[in-house]
Amino acid sequence: MLASLNHPNIAAIYGLEEADGIRALVLELVEGETLAERLTRGPVPVTDALTIARQIADALGAAHEKRIVHRDLKPANVKIRPDGAVKVLDFGLAKAGGDDPTPDSQVSTMAGTRAGIILGTMAYMSPEQARGQSVDKRTDIWAFGSVLFEMLTGRTAFARDTASDTIAGILEREPDWTALPGSSSARIRDLLRRCLQKDPSQRLHDIADARIDIEGEGDPTDRQPSIAVLPFANMSADPDNEYFSDGLAEEVINLLAHIPGLKVIARTSAFAFKDKHEDIRRIAGVLDVTNILQGSVRKAGNRIRVTAQLIAAGDGSHLWSDRYDRELADVFAIQDEIAEAIAKAQVTLADKPAAPLSMMYVAGVQPAHEAVPLARVHAQKALELDPSLLEAHALLGLLAAMYDYDWTEADRRFRLAFARDPVPPLFVRIERANFFLAHVGRGREAVEEMERALAEDPLNVPETT
Q1: Are residues 201 and 65 in the same domain?
Q2: pLDDT, tens only, 298-325
Q3: 152 with 280, same domain?
Q4: Structural domains of the chain, count
Q5: How far is C-alpha 333 from the geometric centre of its chain's CA atoms?
Q6: Active site positions, annotated
Q7: Are 442 and 294 contained in the same domain?
């Protein structure tokens, strides 16, 4: 029966072998990483998650048509090939009779004999499966919902520290729906709720319905743009500057609210997260927005610096950022100027693709051998969109120095970065001093550059210094 499963999204089953009394399935060797391995790097962007989910639904649909229930669907049993194709693996627990509920005694026995191994699988069991009751294809639908929830949030829906707590979560508790990213639509949220109904009779009846919902979703990036402006952080030593930080955020909210087609979250809702160190994606999920604007205010003497970052709710990447250095002569004029600039930037982003400023973080989230070529691609793409982007030139200079030992190219790139801003960000000056000047025998110049940077740019000294 299992060998009859022939589908592009199911790893082929070639037969059953027996040796020394041990039975084993002969399966297709699928290249690529498992979904579980992918999830170690965090949530999957909504568009990618839905692409993966659609292929999983196709695989389950093909199995269910042959009255086969997988019963062990989980991220570790989903492979993602380098070309993006998805393969569902390990039908070793599968049983025939997709619409004919029968007691799931095999799972109960496994849970008893392999408690250390089954705990990971247990997190994806349906309530009826966890109780050892009769199961049918709706058990796979529950697991599908659990996997999709984990892709979108980066966390399991029900897993706890112990087997008993996990079972209790499955039987009695709801997932943390607020963990879903703001870029996930109402249609997908509703799909998840229907997949994860504890009563099988109330659950989504057929996996084909899930596929219809996903296909009907279209491109999740097409949803109405929306934004929440969080309170700007007061980075000054004087707590009295808090009024300026809050007033600036309020003024930005007021101006953004006048942009047609842009949904802006009210001040009272956004300010509920004041002084709370929550993950941006979680905040976006609670407020149901596609973008988050956050910033900080730092005052030194009669000068003030405001930084602002526009962040995509789906993956937490930076879409846009800027800083504003002004004399503190007229507080209200400064608020108006900065709020108008941010509002204009939001309109611009709605009209054209933003430069991938998140390239600056690539090396921190990828293994080194993967980060370098990927960082180069992002930096070069950023320069195609915005040739004046000094951060891109600085990143290419850093890579030329650290990985290519191409000192001529490194010098050229850092010069281009400095040409675009007489006082570039402190991190750019640090990188040039540490990774270029110090390595080409210009140690004294490196020290002088560091001292000069700290003297000229005191508002941007890293928090760890």
Answers
A1: yes
A2: 887 788 888 888 887 766 677 777 787 8
A3: no
A4: 3
A5: 37
A6: 72
A7: no
